[in-house]
């Protein structure tokens, strides 16, 4: 059918409806064609509609997809990333907050992608301090997990510091005497 037909990038009409935030169209597609497995068709990057929703911060569409297809949040894209990885990588604080506040998604918090990176690794690597804090406030997030390069999220955070700023913090300041005339 036309709903399962993909364009040259591998995107289906459902991918586009999600991308453009058209909840009404998403509902229409899923209502009439649930048997087609529309939500389980990935695009050319291996991203499923739920991944797209996480990337473009469409939390209402995410909720609708998870409500209708309860296990779809477990799907990983072509790089082994789940929806939390995708939200973190795109700096989507609202989505990260939503996922971290819902215990249903707890299996995503420490999941690793094909590079061995957890969502915390990605937040540290990309320099998203607010997302790092959101993840660290989630009690079950592990800080000691190492990726395929043997690095923890802390290691990546240190590497992400701008060299000039790091130098500023490493070099002790000289004490200067202040002379004042009385």
Mind explaining what this structure looks like?
- This protein has 182 residues and is an all-alpha fold.
- The protein has two domains: 1-75, Ankyrin repeat-containing domain (Serine Threonine Protein Phosphatase 5, Tetratricopeptide repeat, Alpha Horseshoe); 96-160, Ankyrin repeat-containing domain (Serine Threonine Protein Phosphatase 5, Tetratricopeptide repeat, Alpha Horseshoe).
- Helix content is 47%, strand content 0%.
- The chain has eleven helices and no strands.
- It has helices at residues 13-19, 23-32, 49-55, 59-68, 83-89, 93-100, 106-109, 119-126, 129-137, 153-160, 163-170.
- Helix 3 (49-55) packs antiparallel against helix 4, helix 6 (93-100) runs parallel beside helix 9 (129-137) and helix 8 packs antiparallel against helix 9 (129-137).
- The chain starts with 12 loop residues before the first helix and ends in a 12-residue tail after the last helix.
- The relative contact order is 0.09.
- Residues 165-171 and 175-182 have low confidence and may be disordered.
Q: What is the CATH architecture term of the largest domain?
A: Alpha Horseshoe
The low-confidence runs, each spanning 5 or more residues with pLDDT under 50, are 165-171, 175-182
Write down the secondary-structure element order.
HHHHHHHHHHH
| Percentage of β-strand residues | under 5%
Radius of gyration: 21 Å
The fold-level CATH name of the largest domain is Serine Threonine Protein Phosphatase 5, Tetratricopeptide repeat
Number of domains: 2
Compute the number of helices. Answer: 11
The largest β sheet comes out as:
none
CATH class of the largest domain: Mainly Alpha
The total strand number stands at 0
Question: How would you state the average pLDDT, rounded?
Answer: 87
Which descriptor suits the 3D outline?
Answer: elongated
Give the CA-CA distance, first to last residue. 90 Å
The CATH H-level superfamily of the largest domain is Ankyrin repeat-containing domain
Structural class of the secondary structure composition?
A: mainly alpha
Please give the share of residues in helix.
Answer: 40-55%
């Amino acid at each position: 059918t036309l709903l399962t037909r993909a364009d040259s990038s591998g995107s289906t009409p459902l991918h586009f409806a999600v991308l453009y935030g058209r909840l009404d169209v998403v509902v229409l597609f899923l209502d009439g064609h649930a048997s087609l497995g529309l939500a389980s068709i990935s695009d050319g990057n291996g991203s499923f509609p739920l991944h797209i929703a996480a990337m473009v911060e469409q939390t209402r569409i995410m909720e609708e997809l998870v409500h209708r297809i309860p296990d779809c949040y477990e799907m990983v894209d072509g790089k082994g990333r789940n929806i939390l990885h995708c939200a973190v990588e795109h700096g989507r604080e609202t989505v990260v907050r939503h996922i971290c506040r819902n215990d249903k998604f707890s299996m995503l918090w420490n999941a690793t992608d094909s590079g061995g990176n957890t969502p915390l690794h990605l937040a540290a690597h990309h320099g998203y301090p607010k997302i790092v804090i959101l993840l660290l406030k989630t009690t079950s997030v592990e800080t000691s997990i190492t990726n395929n390069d043997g690095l923890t999220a802390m290691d990546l955070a240190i590497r992400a510091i701008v060299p000039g700023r790091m130098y500023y913090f490493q070099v002790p300041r000289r004490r200067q005497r202040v002379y004042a005339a009385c």
